[in-house]
Structures are given as structure tokens and as C-alpha cells.
Amino acid sequence: MIEIKNLYKSYPRSGGGEIAVLKDINLAVADRSITAIVGASGAGKSTLSKLISLLEQPTSGSILVNGKDLSRLRGESLRHERRAIGTIFQSSALLSRKTAAENIALPLEYLGVVKSDIKKRVAELLEAVGLTSRRDYYPSQLSGGQKQRVGIARALALHPQVLLSDEATSGLDPETTETILSLLTRLRDEFDLSIVLITHEMDAVRHAANYIAAIKDGEIVEQGKVSDLLSNPHSSVGRQLISLNVADAFNDRHLVAELIYGAGVPSDWVQIASEKLGAAVHILGAKIEQIGNDGIYGRTLVGLEFAKPLGVEIESVKEQLRAIGFHAEFRNELERIAA
Ligand SMILES: Nc1ncnc2c1ncn2[C@@H]1O[C@H](COP(=O)(O)OP(=O)(O)O)[C@@H](O)[C@H]1O
Ligand SMILES: [Mg+2]
User: Fold this and answer.
1) CA dist., res. 256 & res. 244, Å (int)
2) Measured in angstroms, how far is the CA atom of residue 43 from the centroid of ligand 2?
3) Alpha carbon distances (Å) from 206 to 101, 288, 317
4) How far is the C-alpha of 69 from the C-alpha of 71, rounded, in Å?
5) Global pTM?
6) For the chain, which ranges sit under pLDDT 50?
């Protein structure tokens, strides 16, 4: 558990005075959770990441890991406690003259762990990230996603409780990003980690994160459980999470549809729709009412997530929804018409 309390960070301004980069940040990262910190470039994300990884000290406020304030340690105690936090750097942070296995071994060698133990631990870590067959490859012989997995294994070498990733998936294609995020989710469960995922890509966090904090100009402007943000019509983050779906819709596997209930919609429509469409049906919002004895009426906003990229089958998706009893409008179409 990480608790960030009243955290401020200022840097000296070149012309004199101070520039406040982080202002009164309060955030709790629960055990075994994935917390995403999102925000535009320049918002202060990397500064927060440097404070959490104990590379820099806050101007005021505290960072508690399992109840212990680590933010003001120095010297040997800092070096010791820093092991609680594993950081995934950008892929370029791998040493190019060392193999995957040798890169993973670095933190262990630095600590003076005996050779046989290093060998054993590195083998475990390679296995955990699925790179056993690439142990002797150099970074130049690995794909972007594989390099990132080496970085993750190295960050886990010293059994941290917290895994911190600052833009680790930026620059990877969406599919590789998804693979890395599912790996992180699995590792969280396997090693009981709290994961802090810092990113400017909303798309990356939609599925992986349990909790999101949005920062803007050094302040947290919104935070909450992903499910709460998504279902709150006033949440700006919730809107961004959905509208990214919409923007990508035609070339992607996602459609956002507003379904209007007809009289004959069966109660198990989610299952029926999901089977007929071959898509996961996520209910993003709904208002449904019993009107007298006439039946149930209302609207629901659903995210349809298809197993394969969608082509021109939108009309047939609509047909199938109509057959279930819905009148379906697709948000992306509506937006196109509006634009
Ligand atoms: N060492 C520093 N000295 C002065 N200003 C800094 C320093 N580090 C970051 N900043 C400023 O803090 C702001 C936030 O930067 P950063 O944390 O890197 O944002 P992000 O990672 O969200 O893009 C920027 O305006 C940046 O110029
Ligand atoms: Mg940054």
C-alpha cells in the first residue's frame, strides 16, 4: 500500500523563484491493484514517478509504503528501502552489450548476490515474463515488447512490493501494449504487487487499471475506480475513456452504441447479443424503467468489443440488434454525421 499525502514538489526557476510542479497530491495505491496516473505531457507525471521511486525528494508532504515514510531517507537506508519499488524504464534503458539474462542480473550483481543465486533468480524471472528462450539474445535482437519484458523482469529482480512504470508502453503498437498490460496484471497476482502505471495514453489503461488518477498542471483533478468514472456522466476521465473507443471505432474492434429498448427486448439480452454478435457487451450506462403495465422502456449505452477488427459489417450488427428488439444508434456514426 502506498499513501501519498499532501505532496508538493517545486524546482528553482531559471530566472529566480520557484516553479511548483506538483501541488497537494493525495493518492492511495491499494495492495494488489493497478493504479493509472494519466495526464497530458507536462502535467507532472514523471516528476511524481521520480518521487515515488525515491530518485528525488519532495519539497513537502510524504510517501508512505506500508506505513513507512520513505520520502526523506538518505544513504544506506534509502538504498535498502528503494528495493521495495521496482521501476520499469523505457526499453532503451537496457544495456546493449549485455544479453537479456545479463540485463536482468544487474540489480542482483550490484547487491553482491552470490553467482549461483543470481543464476537461479534470473531463470525464474525469465520464466515469469515468458522469455526463457531468449535468455542469450542482445537487446538489438529483441522486439520492442520483448525488450520491455526484460525491463519488467529486471524491475522485479529484488522482490519489490511496488512496480512503477513511467510510459513503459508508449511507442509500442496497441497489440504489444495489450500483451504487456496483461503480463503486468498476471505478475500483480503472482507476486502480490501494487502497480503504478504512468501514461498519457488513455487507451492503455482502460482494461488494465482498477483505479485512475488524472493530473493536470500538477494537481489531481479527478480520481476514482475505473468503473465509477465510467458510469459517472460528469466524469471527464470517464468520457475520455469512452470517447477514445468512439474515435477508434471504425478501424478498431470497438463500437459504442446507444440501444433504445423496444417492447420485446428479452431480459437476457446481454447474453443473446454477445452470442449473436460474437462480441463482449459492456454496459456503460443505462436508464430503464417499467412504464405502467406496458413493459420496460429506456436506453442503454453499450460498448461492443469484437474479437476481430470490424470492417463494413456495421449494418449487419445493427440488423442483429434490431432482431433482438433494439433500435440501435452508433455513437461514432452520430459523431460523423455531426462533424
Ligand atoms: N528538474 C526540473 N527543473 C525544472 N522544471 C522541471 C524539472 N523537471 C520537470 N520540470 C517541469 O515540470 C513540469 C512537469 O514535467 P513532467 O513531470 O516531466 O511532466 P510529464 O511527465 O507529465 O510530461 C514541466 O513543465 C517540466 O518542465
Ligand atoms: Mg513524462
Assistant:
1) 10
2) 8
3) 32, 26, 24
4) 6
5) 0.74
6) 244-251, 333-339
